[in-house]
Amino acid sequence: MNRLYHVPLSPFCRKVRLSLAEKRIEVDLVEERYWERDLDFMRRNPAGKVPVLKIDGRTLSESAAICEYLEETHPEPSLMPKGAAERHEVRRLVAWFDDKFHHEVTSKLLYERVNKKITGQGYPDSTNVKAGAKAIKYHLDYMGWLLEQRRWLAGDAMSLADFAAAAHLSSLDYISDVDWNRSPHVKDWYAKIKSRPAFRSILADAVPGFPPPQHYADLDF
Amino acid sequence: MNRLYHVPLSPFCRKVRLSLAEKRIEVDLVEERYWERDLDFMRRNPAGKVPVLKIDGRTLSESAAICEYLEETHPEPSLMPKGAAERHEVRRLVAWFDDKFHHEVTSKLLYERVNKKITGQGYPDSTNVKAGAKAIKYHLDYMGWLLEQRRWLAGDAMSLADFAAAAHLSSLDYISDVDWNRSPHVKDWYAKIKSRPAFRSILADAVPGFPPPQHYADLDF
After folding, report:
1. B84, B128, B145, B148: least CB-packed within 10 angstroms?
2. Domain for residue B98, yes or no?
3. For position A96, which CATH number holds?
4. A33 within some domain
5. Close Cβ partners of B219 (under 8 Å, ≥ 6 residues apart)
6. CA-CA distance, B55 to B151, in Å (whole number)?
7. Where are the alpha helices (DSSP H) in A96-208?
8. Would B147 be classed as within a structural domain?
9. Global pTM value
10. Which residue of A91, A94, A143, A146 is the best one to mutate when testing the B interface, meaning the one whose CB has the most B CBs within 10 A?
């Protein structure tokens, strides 16, 4: 059986979970306390990070590389367009969310409010939380600008770029850090992606000590 | 004419320069003072980062996405293997260097010693420099372990993984921060890659105020 080592609120794990679910690849989810740097886990991924996917007798790490692998081995339904320029746009936006958005927003809000507590690193740093709350506005505006011109973030078809963005936003929505009223385009986009069957397992996540707000799993939020 | 907006010591720009040169794609190099966030530049890449590549009438950003684009539009000579698992290993290692190595080593050494001065952010933080000098040892050992088992970092053929690693190490070698005596496998690997014609422009880089050490451009270092 395929197995994904993950933590529920990690946007990198969620992106892989969405790809797996969209492609109907069955997988056992195993929660991994990666911060304890257990030796078995470090053997699976010397980078000491989740997600790690066991599939086809292999152990894969790095979420973007895993998603490309799934795309190449399970091409249908496709999460990547065909043309080189369109594929570049998907990859640019995946990097935008996993690098820039992660650095400016996710690490400043989710990591301060949740990860620090879970991993025993103390209380949120209010300077970081403020910076994250400010930066997410700019990112929502950028998404809104893209979605004014395109049906999905990278073009006319849903792609890995949408999953990368939805993975970050859904994790932040779990702690009520997304203002869905800022951009109607972003809200419509999230409503579309949230109602996909692939999203169900993510909406069912529950982290002990951090109950999600009511609207989190509500398709009519 | 194709145009690459870059800064000379950026490992992300160097990775793209190596790909372009290996594939014999001619390009004008334009130095970009990205930290000044010039409006024209922000229009080319709203992420405000280099490299940015103008090619085929398009403006591309994000170094890994650019390299995948070049691979798809100029497949020969190939910098990616054919099999999905082998391609995953290349992408995993590109992410290893551009994410983990960058965070633990490059940002702690190169950015403290050079970027801070160039961008007017003051003096190196000695805690960071110490942490970077310690972390690079572990990374060189990991590379040595991989190269004991493989001709190149990701397998038997040279790939984007080697260019990602060589891009970081060459930038650090410019400021004498690589101990080439730590692993004979790593030294042999770097000698092989350094002697490629694609490497010439990188060995000719000169940053005002930061002259490279003598061994930097020496193929017999």
Report:
1. B148
2. yes
3. 1.20.1050.10
4. no
5. B191, B194, B195
6. 32
7. 107-110, 116-118, 126-149, 160-174, 184-194, 200-203
8. yes
9. 0.97
10. A91
DSSP conformation letters of B95-145: HIIIIIIIIIIIHHHHIIIIIHHHTT--SPPHHHHHHHHHHHHHHHHHHHH
The Cα of B84 is separated from the nearest Cα of chain A by a number of Å equal to 6
Split into its structural domains, chain B has a count of 1
Rounded to a whole number of angstroms, the distance from the CA of A72 to the nearest CA of chain B is 6
- Helix residue spans in A50-125 (DSSP H): 63-73, 84-95, 107-110, 116-118
SS3 A15: helix
Task: Collect all residues of chain A within an 8 Å Cβ-Cβ radius of residue B85.
Answer: 56, 58, 69
The tokens of A18 are what? 């969405």
Q: Do A92 and B58 touch (CB under 8 A)?
A: no
In a domain, A124, yes or no: yes
Q: Residue B71: which of B163, B191, B192 has the closest Cα? A: B163
- Between the alpha carbon of residue A43 and those of residues A47, B112, B152, the distances in Å are 9, 32, 21
b/e code A9-18 from CB counts within 10 Å (16+ = b): bbbbbbbbbb
Tokens of A107: 């690490």
Q: How far apart are CA A140 and CA A194, in angstroms?
A: 17
B18-34 tens-digit pLDDT: 999 999 999 999 999 88
- The predicted-structure confidence for B38-79, as pLDDT tens digits, reads as follows 888 888 888 889 999 999 999 999 999 999 999 999 999 999
Domain that holds residue B159: 84-196
